[in-house]
Specification:
This protein is α+β, with helices and mostly antiparallel strands. The protein has helices at about 5-10, 25-35, 80-85, 85-110, 130-145, 160, 190-205, 255-260, 330-340, 400-415, 450-460, 465-470, 485-495, 500-520; strands at about 15-20, 40, 60, 115-125, 155, 175-185, 205-210, 215-220, 225-230, 240-250, 270-280, 290-295, 300-305, 310, 315, 355-365, 375-380, 390-395. Helix 2 runs parallel beside helix 7 (about 190-205).
Length: about 525
């Protein structure tokens, strides 16, 4: 996937242009290319560098979706909500079904990109739910799923659970009635899923270009859209192209993109911030996770990942700078406190936190829901004066293929493809195996020097951050690859045309990135 020159896009016409190269935009381009549409996908930054890169990493079964009132802003939900609000109940059951289907689809088609672990849900004598209710919910979830990736749920007696690693740290053991264990998955790193998806779209003829902000979006007299692109790094560089259809998958920037076309576009996005912290637990806790409720009855979890564990999330309305999102010290301390509330025997301290991250969920704005509407929403923007434009909001990573199919279906109802259908592939795109290549990092062998070379040649990294975080995943390790940054930059310098001054700048920018966004100092 060679990054096309901006001048080579000037004057071209596409069936569809996708604005926003996160996981949902990637899926939209992927499904459109398979249907025979000529497609361009662009992003103002790197692919999957926004909310897609800041997620919980949890490929979840949808257990939360079957809670009464989930995602609808009820202040005091109860079991009676199932009966007095049947439409909401059916909606959430569909969300749970979609979660189980998405979980199954990703786990079976991209096994390299996910990893199984065992989740544990404690039930106390003073919990909102009784053990029998949780058992019914587990059976319901299992029945909603396709069955090829079992939920594998089981009820553990309190005494048995309290003798197990990690669970022995649970709060209030004298009130513990039972612990429910079930199979769950987490992404190895979600940005790679977006990259795999874009790579397959390009295989089928799509054109992809990162760091290409859209500056103008105008509808011409023949009904087609005129789009002006710029280059984030080359001042004055521009390309003007046309498209029959525009898909706005810009996530938390969706309203900004719509505003380029019209002043009359209604608000589509409400952002809620989720922060996480990473730390290390003893080896016997590997592949074990815990999920419970906070004092405010919000979900809180501890999840295993690459020999470490992380805890989260926060869930607060975000009205700050959407171009500068990071976990605050207050949020980090809050997560330490909530983790110790759930697992007081752990004794987590602030200094145990290896790094943090935060993202903003691009939920659907609804004036009646103060925390936004969850569940993917397709917007036909014709009602906003933008015929031939569609937007997707509130679609999490695990349902990105649903989102892609919805977007493709909307385009198909508006305009027919100019080319023949092609066979889509959902498989991961691993790097060529080279057993002779050394690893970049001493403590993690998941990124080899040969992987850096392959990514630099074939996957459009423009910066060292692109390479280490979103191509080879070395940034998402215990040290955030700070000790390997210079070597990585030097290895790809001949391929990317970097001189020594550029290498030094990329290393400095990388170290600044992990300090600013993740709280990691260069000297450890």
């Amino acid at each position: 996937m060679t990054r096309p020159a901006l001048k080579d896009l000037d004057g071209r016409e596409f069936d569809a242009v996708v604005i926003g190269g996160g996981v949902n935009g990637a899926s939209g381009a992927h499904h459109l290319a398979a249907e025979g549409y000529s497609v361009l996908i662009v992003d103002k930054g790197d692919f999957a560098s926004g909310s897609s890169s800041r997620s919980s990493r949890l490929l979840h079964c949808g257990l939360r979706f079957i809670e009464p009132g989930e995602g609808l802003g009820y202040r005091n939900p109860s079991m009676w909500d199932y009966f007095v609000k049947p439409r909401d109940t059916l909606r959430n059951l569909k969300r749970a079904r979609d979660a189980m289907v998405g979980r199954s689809e990703l786990a079976t088609t991209m096994p390299e990109r996910v990893k199984a672990f065992k989740f544990h849900f404690p039930v106390y004598s003073d919990s909102v739910y009784r053990p029998w209710q949780v058992a019914v919910g587990m059976r319901l979830l299992a029945a909603l799923g396709p069955g090829d990736v079992p939920l594998g749920h089981a009820r553990l007696a309190a005494d048995k659970a309290l003798a197990m690693p990690m669970l022995k740290w649970l709060r209030a053991p004298e009130k513990l009635d039972a612990v429910f264990a079930f199979n769950e998955y987490r992404y190895e790193w979600p940005e790679r899923i977006a990259m795999d998806t874009i790579l397959d779209a390009v295989r089928m003829g799509a054109v992809a270009r990162n760091y290409s902000p859209v500056r103008k979006l105008e509808r011409e007299s023949d009904g087609k859209w005129r789009i002006e692109l710029t280059d984030a790094f080359v001042e004055g560089a521009r390309a003007t192209l046309r498209a029959r259809v525009v898909l706005n998958t810009a996530g938390i920037w969706t309203d900004r993109v719509n505003a380029l076309a019209t002043d009359g576009a209604k608000r589509k996005i409400l952002g809620t911030k989720g922060a996480h912290i990473m730390f290390r637990l003893p080896p016997e806790c590997a592949d074990m996770g815990v999920i419970a409720h906070t004092k405010a009855r919000e979900p809180h979890y501890v999840i295993p990942w690459r020999g470490m564990h992380y805890a989260g999330p926060t869930d607060t309305k975000y009205e700050g700078d959407i171009d500068d999102i990071h976990a605050t010290e207050q949020e980090v301390e809050h997560l330490v406190e909530e983790t110790n509330h759930m697992l007081p025997g752990l004794g987590l301290r602030r200094k145990d936190v290896l790094f943090s991250w935060a993202g903003v969920r691009p939920l659907t704005y609804d004036p009646d829901l103060p925390m936004g509407k969850r569940g993917h929403t397709l917007h036909d923007l014709a009602a906003d004066g933008m015929p031939g434009c569609f937007a997707m909001t509130s679609s999490p990573i695990q349902s990105h293929r649903f989102a892609g199919r919805l977007l493709s279906g909307a385009v198909k109802a508006f305009a027919q493809p100019s080319g023949p259908k092609q066979q889509i592939s959902y498989a991961a795109k691993p790097y060529p195996r080279d057993n002779t290549s050394p690893a970049l990092l001493n403590h993690w062998d998941g990124a080899k020097i040969s992987d850096l070379h392959h990514a630099a040649r074939n996957e459009q990294p423009v910066t060292l951050v692109d390479l280490l975080f979103r191509r080879v995943g070395a940034g998402w390790t215990e040290t955030m690859a700070r000790e390997g940054a210079r070597r990585a930059a030097q290895e790809v310098a001949p391929i990317l045309g970097w001189d020594e001054a550029r290498v030094a700048k990329e290393v400095a920018d990388y170290l600044g990135h992990i300090l600013r966004l993740h709280g990691v100092k260069a000297d450890g």
